[in-house]
Specification:
By secondary structure, this protein is α/β, with parallel strands linked by helices. The chain has helices spanning 6-15, 21-27, 31-39, 42-46, 58-61, 74-81, 91-94, 102-111, 114-122, 128-134, 146-151, 158-172, 195-206, 223-226, 235-248, 264-269, 300-309, 334-345, 366-374, 443-447, 478-481, 486-506, and strands at residues 187-191, 210-214, 251-253, 272-277, 283-284, 297-299, 326-330, 350-355, 378-381, 383-390, 396-406, 417-419, 425-428, 431-434, 438-439, 473-475. The protein has three domains: 6-172, Fumarate Reductase Iron-sulfur Protein, Chain B, domain 2, CATH 1.10.1060.10; 187-281 and 440-506, FAD/NAD(P)-binding domain; 284-438, FAD/NAD(P)-binding domain. 38% of the residues lie in helices and 15% in strands. Strands 3-2-1-4-16 form a five-stranded parallel sheet. A five-stranded parallel sheet has the order 6-14-7-8-9. Strands 10, 11, 12 and 13 form a four-stranded antiparallel sheet that branches.
Length: 507
Amino acid sequence: MQGRSKTEIFTEIKKQKMYSQEYLSQQRNQPWREALRKSMKAAERTAIERVSMPEQDPEVRNKNMKEVNQGLTAEQAMKEARRCLDCVNPTCITGCPVNINIPGFIKEIERGNFEGAIRCLKESNGLPAVCGRVCPQEIQCESQCFYVQKLKKEPVAIGYLERFAADYERESGKISVPEILPSNGIKIGVVGSGPAGLTVAGDLRKLGYEVTVFEALHEIGGVLKYGIPEFRLPNVIVDVEIENLRRMGVHFVTDFVVGKTATFEQLMKEGYRAFFVGSGAGLPNFMGIPGENSVGIFSSNEYLTRVNLMGAGKEDYDTPVLRGKHVAVIGGGNTAMDSVRTAKRMGAQRTMIVYRRSFEEMPARKEEIKHAREEGIEFLLLTNPVAYLADEKGRVKQMKVQKMELSEPDASGRRRPVPVEGSEYLIDVDMVVVSVGVSPNPLIPQLLPDLKITKWKTIEVNPETMQSSIPWLFAGGDIVRGGATVILAMGDGRRTAEGIHKYVQSL
């Protein structure tokens, strides 16, 4: 410890209010810092309170599209990292769909070695800045944390720390490119540039494959661009991750619909040996109730795509979009929260979530619900629309809703919503966004009659390899799951890369 006592070491730590880049560069390899890390007892670590994420004020942020969460300072990140107990059996890793070495990257943050932390993250996660923002850590890695499982305390803020490490790398301007094996000359096609497709592309490129991503839209990113608002995931964050894939040698082609612009057969004649399909679940579901075709009723996919990807509402864009004064969003998932919070930022006077169950059953992330409530969103729970009424021009003007009550739990433990007779009433609305689920993109299954699909119209795959009934075709993400999280799609991507590698090498 270079003659320092434990008291002196802790005094040194307490003096540090903010860590400058120069200070960290000087200090991260100092023996006393590692000695301090090793000398901390479990009781000292567990006594540290979980960090709170700095946020924009609700009355300010609900009028702009800037990111709500502001990120941790270096001081906050290192203090939170000291909470990690570095368990002998790190169950947090098993809770992560891409198996990040969570204790490994957190301990690097504790040491002040932020470059080491991001290198550790990137060994298994090609999109750490994205995952640190939108993954539901509370039901995945953090739910398996020792603090939750054994101590019944708040878990280590794994998502916040992942975001911190990724943001540090981006802001430093020194973005690392993973090691790439020499090119093997084998061409692989990836259909769709969402999180599953980007993950497949990155993992296969590391193995030396020549990878091309075909995207039907004019921008790369899939649901990361069209489905998630900038106040949750800024486009610049996605662009940086994509640029890193380009630097790795991944090729991207936009405005290209596989099956229309060119068929699989044509692409195979160009030398492609296998394909991954990650074309998502972009077909919106509606409820089929009277008046649902009225003007002013959108699917959440259309509404969010107009605003997020096509710039509706920005002064220098001419993408049309309605700006309702009284907006109802039907549903209780993350996409519903994104839609209603977007409507608030687009100037709506009254914004409502209409959901047929209660808060306890609501599938949206707790953080998203919290943010929505803070921003002035109303929640009409145990309520379900049964009809829409339009004015003389065909635009929706009212919504008839019915109160619901929850039945006793069924065999699965889920409580079914049951209508309350005679409880209907009208609500004034001039815009409605329906967010009650999506169905898989039907194009690929229609093109390949030999492709096996499930009763839900998703592609049937081997869950270990993600290989379909057509040997050269692999699939993952929403086209297989029918709607899931970013990190689950990325997990599919990692398994697919391994599956394609084994398949191609066996030919």
